[in-house]
Structure formats: C-alpha cells, structure tokens
Amino acid sequence: MFDMLTGRLEAIFDKIRHRGRLTEKDIDQVLREVRLALLEADVHYRVVRDFLKRVRERALGHEVSKALLPAEQVLTIVYEELVNTLGEPADLTLKGEKPYVIMLVGLQGSGKTTTAAKLARRLRDQGHRVLLVAADPYRPAAVEQLRTLGKQLNIPVFHQPNVPPPDMVAHAIEQARASGYSVVLVDTAGRSQLDQAMMDEAQAIAQRVHPTETLLVADAMMGQEAVNVAQGFKQAVPLTGLILTKLDGDARGGAAISMRAVTGVPIKFVGVGEKLDALEPFDPQRLASRILGMGDVQGLLEKAQAVIDEEEAERQAERLLRGEFTLEDFLSQLKMLRRFGPITQILDMLPGELGRLSRQLDPRTVEQQLKKVEAIINSMTPEERRHPEIINASRKRRIARGSGTTVQDVNQLLRQYRQMKRMMKQLQRTGLSGLMQWFR
C-alpha cells in the first residue's frame, strides 16, 4: 500500500539528504513537491493545505536551522505532523449496560460484512460472547454470507426474514440480553451510493437501539470519494469511529490520511487482507512510518512472534552455522515465512534501502517463485532433501515433472542452496569479515 506516495516522498527527501544547510527557498521547493505528491495520492486538498502550513512553520523555525542534519530534521517534522493528521489511536469504547451494541454502516462493496466477521472474531478472542445480526435484507446473499462467516468462527448469526431492520435489531438485543451475550454486532444494509432511504434506515436503527459504537466501514481505495461518504454518514448518524478496509491493496492511500482530519472521527481499525484475522488496530505512528518509507519493523516483529517457533528457529540457526542446513530446513523456513501473510505485506514493512529495493520487485513474481521453490522441494524424497548431493540428472527430471517445473528450475534451486551453505561455512571459519567477501 501507499507505493506511489512512498516512492514520491522518498525521492523528494533523497534530493536534499546530503545538504549541510537548507534555505527558505529549499524548504519551499520541498514542500511544493510534497504538496503535489499528496494531492496525486488523493489526499483531500484542505488536509494538504493545513498539513503543509504546520510543516512550513516548524521547518522555518529553529528546529531545522540549528540541526546538524537539516534534511533529516525536516523529515522528522513531516513524520510528526503526519502522525498528528492521522490522529490518536482509539480503541472500542465498551462501557455501560451489556450487551454492548456495535453498529456497522457503509456503502455496498466496502467490505462491511467481512469486517463484521473480523471484528466479531477479535472480540471473541478478547473474551466476549458475540452475537452477529444480519440486518441487510436487500443485498442478495448478504445474510447467507454472514451465516457462512459466523459458522467458520462458531459465532451465531441472528436474522428474522420479513422483519424491518430496526425491529430485527431490537429483537436481537432482547435475545442477547436473555442469553448472556456481551456484544451485539450489527451488519446494516449498504447501497451502491449514498441515498436518503439508506440514511433513514440507519438513523431509525440508531434511534431505536442507541448503539455503543457506530463505525463507518470505508473502502480506502475510493480515494477522495471515501471522504465524501464519511461526511455523509456523519451527518446522518452519530459516528464514533472508522474502519478502513482494503488498505493492503491501495497504492495511493490518500483516504487513510484524509478521513480522520476531515471528519474528526478516529480511525479505529484497518483491514489488511482477506483472512478473518486481517484486522489490525489503527496505529498512526506505524502507518506514518510506512508512508514515509521508514518501514514497520515493529509490525514485522509482531508477525514474527506470532508465527515463529523460537526453539525451532534457534535449532535451525545452529544447524545453519554448523553447515548442517538441509533442504528440509529450507522448506520449513519457507513455510514459516508464508505464515507471515501475503508477501506484499512483508515487503511493505521493510525499512530504508531494503524497503526501496523490495518495492522494485513484482510481488506476484516473488509469490510465484516461492510457490515454485516449495513445489520443487515437496517433489523430492526425504533422502534427497537431507542429502541433495545425491540428486543426479534422472532424479532432477523426476523432480521437475512432479513439481510442474523445469530441470533448469531445479538446478537453480540447488545452486542457490549450495551457495548458502558455502556462505555459512565461510562465516563459521572467518566470521563476518569473511562473509562480506560474498557481497563485494
């Protein structure tokens, strides 16, 4: 995500990075380029104006003129003001009498039903008993979609055919209270565009049940239109927060920067994938870091902690350094990497030069290559994985046929494996100085 904006901002700051002093003219030139980059990324023009005004005031002050590295100080100011624009992180406010009612609103196609299931899963994992309510009787298969998702999560779904949505939600709350549920999560109807009937129904539900939270689910890929949608809903119902979906697929990212500033409503969660665990609490500092090409090392570490078996990782590291690393170990590491999530997300989290290099790669090509490597190793016998030196020409042909690849692909994998082993032996003998010979 944010590929276009990140690339533009990195290029802008690279131009001034090695200058020992920045004049007012230099700063104004940088800010003009930042302005164009933000507008091209679909950031709302009023947000851009206010953001750059704050940055300029600080950049022309003592913070930059007294700095040893003025370009880095300007980047720091941009980062801090971007965090300020994105707003403070805000969790769900679940207080008062149970069951807490969370109402999701949004346009059709924004990912609202899937987001309802993701949020239900998150609340369930926090210890809540959740009841999902399918209050969208208009979209074909909407009720069935929510029931399917609820079945996957073992979370019940409430629906009453031919009952007006405000009455249905009220009945659901009565049942939830009687059955000891702590959260009622309401998936309301969406439309292809803002219309009065849609707003009237959302208002009627809100006035009938007084939800604890009313969250707008907005598609981040809509750009400036997402801001108009947010303003329209805010005028109709008392919004308490935003959930931005499809943030993993938006190359521009302007909506994420604009919506908090324009509406005054906090972004509470972001959807970063299709799986039901791909809903993250919004963190403005981490998002600002990624927009500015600083990566998200903290997020990468959190993903690693969630999927890596520490004992197994230590065992493989020791075997690697002893030169005992086999293709079975390589396959194990590859599977571990794939549990991190889509390769595009991993690449997007890499900082600095690594991040810049990774963005030059085609994620689809990388994904295809990983699948190819996995298929080749899976087509080997256990003996071949442990002792690749026994793989002769006939074995290579069999492995290629079994994996749907070519003998050249098999040769390339074996060559890379041998290079890795030689590098590790060199490290074992001579330390880091010896390893560096491989990169000269």
Structure description:
It contains 22 helices and eight strands. It has 440 residues and is α/β, with parallel strands linked by helices. It has three domains: 3-86, SRP54, nucleotide-binding domain (Four Helix Bundle (Hemerythrin (Met), subunit A)), CATH 1.20.120; 100-292, Rossmann fold (3-Layer(aba) Sandwich), CATH 3.40.50; 300-439, 434 Repressor (Amino-terminal Domain) (Orthogonal Bundle), CATH 1.10.260.30. β2 (130-135), α7 and β3 form a beta-alpha-beta unit. Mean pLDDT is 80; it is low at 432-440.
Task: Offer a concise description of the structure.
The chain is of the alpha/beta class and 440 residues long. The protein contains 22 helices and eight strands. The chain has helices spanning 3-16, 24-40, 45-59, 62-65, 70-86, 112-125, 142-153, 165-179, 196-209, 224-236, 254-263, 284-291, 297-307, 310-321, 327-338, 343-349, 352-358, 363-378, 382-386, 393-403, 407-430, 432-436, and strands at residues 100-105, 130-135, 157-158, 183-188, 213-219, 241-245, 267-271, 279-281.
Topology, element by element:
Blueprint (H helix, E strand, L loop, with lengths): L2 H14 L7 H17 L4 H15 L2 H4 L4 H17 L13 E6 L6 H14 L4 E6 L6 H12 L3 E2 L6 H15 L3 E6 L7 H14 L3 E7 L4 H13 L4 E5 L8 H10 L3 E5 L7 E3 L2 H8 L5 H11 L2 H12 L5 H12 L4 H7 L2 H7 L4 H16 L3 H5 L6 H11 L3 H24 L1 H5 L4
Parallel strand pairs: 1-4, 1-5, 2-3, 2-4, 5-6, 6-7
Antiparallel strand pairs: 7-8
Helix pairs in contact: 1-2, 2-3, 3-5, 5-12, 6-7, 8-9, 10-11, 15-18, 18-20, 20-21
